[in-house]
């Protein structure tokens, strides 16, 4: 099926990377049909709620129609059976035309026998115009999903905390399996572990700094997580098996690397990947922009993404795949 995705404007490349990874891990495959930032259309074996799962995917849903804006009023599109209350919406046409298109789609909903609720809809029939092309999709609303995750409410806090949607992007790029073990070898305050559990993984964290390990355990227990924290050295991991790896490697004065550079830590982790990931397993590792990728036998570097945190800090994400031992 075709899935429409509206990607985050501040990093659509990271958004399309997440979308591809989610279709692969959740539905078994993907094909990017169109990528015109901030819009993408993907073909997946089944529908995946990219907007709900993605850190840098704003909205997503089943694509019903795609064509020129002038053809929208006469377009024949079949409205699927929508069991929840729904509403119509439009974006990108200008204020006056947005209202007219919304009315048109609302009439289509009513004709299809869908119950309309503009205040608390469970689905949105939305038209989105991007240049000369208009997309109509059934969107799953997730407005304000990141506002609910205020890191200041956690019992243990640290200046190096990873914002939730970037932590979620790392998790998604590691292609997690439902019920599988996700390992974070530099778990810090536990942000990656929290996002891993929210997508259905069993998270396991490792940290050499006893203060961080104890603090992240507080955070994990506070939210009722089933995951665990181990105090240990990522250079000699105290865990023998995992399904995927996602981690933000330490750097700078606020994060302790215990005498190792980020480059050295990255090399250690990449070399260890074939020891605890099965062939086909993925690792998403985030470092500073200037850090170069590491290499090892049985491991391929598949993807690289940049994310500008602020003017003085840009992070780089390497996605590796284990091909053998």
Q: Shape, please?
A: elongated
| Helix-strand string | EHEEHEEHEEHEHEHEEHEEE
Number of helices: 7
CATH class category name of the largest domain: Alpha Beta
Q: How many β strands by DSSP?
A: 14
**Which percent band covers the strand fraction?**
25-35%
The third-level CATH topology of the largest domain is Rossmann fold
The end-to-end distance, rounded to whole angstroms, is 35 Å
Average pLDDT rating: 90
CATH architecture of the largest domain: 3-Layer(aba) Sandwich
Number of structural units classed as domains: 2
Rg over C-alpha atoms, rounded to the nearest angstrom: 21 Å
Stretches with pLDDT under 50, minimum 5 residues: none
Q: Which sequence of strands runs across the widest sheet? A: 2-3-1-4-7-6-5
Which secondary-structure class do the elements indicate?
A: alpha/beta
CATH superfamily of the largest domain: Vaccinia Virus protein VP39
Helicity range:
25-40%
């Amino acid at each position: 099926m075709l899935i429409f995705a509206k990607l985050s404007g501040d990093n659509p490349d990271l958004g399309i990377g997440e979308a591809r990874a989610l279709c692969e891990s959740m539905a078994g495959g993907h094909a990017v049909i169109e990528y015109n930032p901030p819009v993408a259309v993907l073909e997946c074996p089944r529908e995946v709620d990219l907007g709900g799962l993605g850190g840098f995917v704003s909205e997503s849903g089943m694509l019903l129609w795609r064509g020129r804006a002038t053809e929208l009023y006469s377009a024949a599109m079949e409205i699927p059976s929508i069991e929840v209350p729904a509403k119509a919406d439009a974006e990108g046409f200008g204020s006056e035309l947005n209202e007219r298109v919304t009315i048109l789609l609302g009439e289509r909903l009513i004709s299809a026998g869908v119950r309309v609720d503009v205040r608390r809809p469970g689905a949105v029939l939305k038209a989105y115009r991007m240049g000369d092309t208009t997309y109509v999709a059934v969107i799953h609303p997730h407005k304000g999903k990141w506002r609910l995750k205020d890191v200041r409410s956690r019992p243990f806090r640290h200046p190096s905390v990873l914002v939730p949607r970037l932590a979620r992007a790392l998790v998604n790029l590691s292609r997690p399996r439902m019920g599988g073990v996700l390992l974070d070898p530099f778990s810090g305050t536990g942000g990656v572990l929290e996002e891993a559990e929210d997508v259905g993984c069993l998270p396991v964290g490792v940290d050499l700094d006893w203060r961080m390990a104890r603090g992240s355990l507080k955070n994990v227990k506070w939210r009722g997580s089933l995951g665990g924290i181990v105090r240990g050295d990522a250079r000699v991991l105290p865990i023998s098996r995992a399904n995927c790896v996602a981690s933000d490697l330490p750097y700078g004065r606020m994060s302790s690397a215990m005498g190792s550079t980020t480059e050295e830590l990255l090399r250690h982790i990449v070399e260890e990947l074939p020891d605890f990931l099965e062939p086909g397993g993925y690792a998403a590792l985030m470092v500073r922009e200037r850090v170069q990728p590491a290499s090892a036998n049985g491991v391929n570097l598949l993807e690289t993404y940049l994310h500008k945190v602020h003017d003085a800090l840009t992070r780089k994400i390497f996605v590796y795949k284990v091909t053998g031992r």
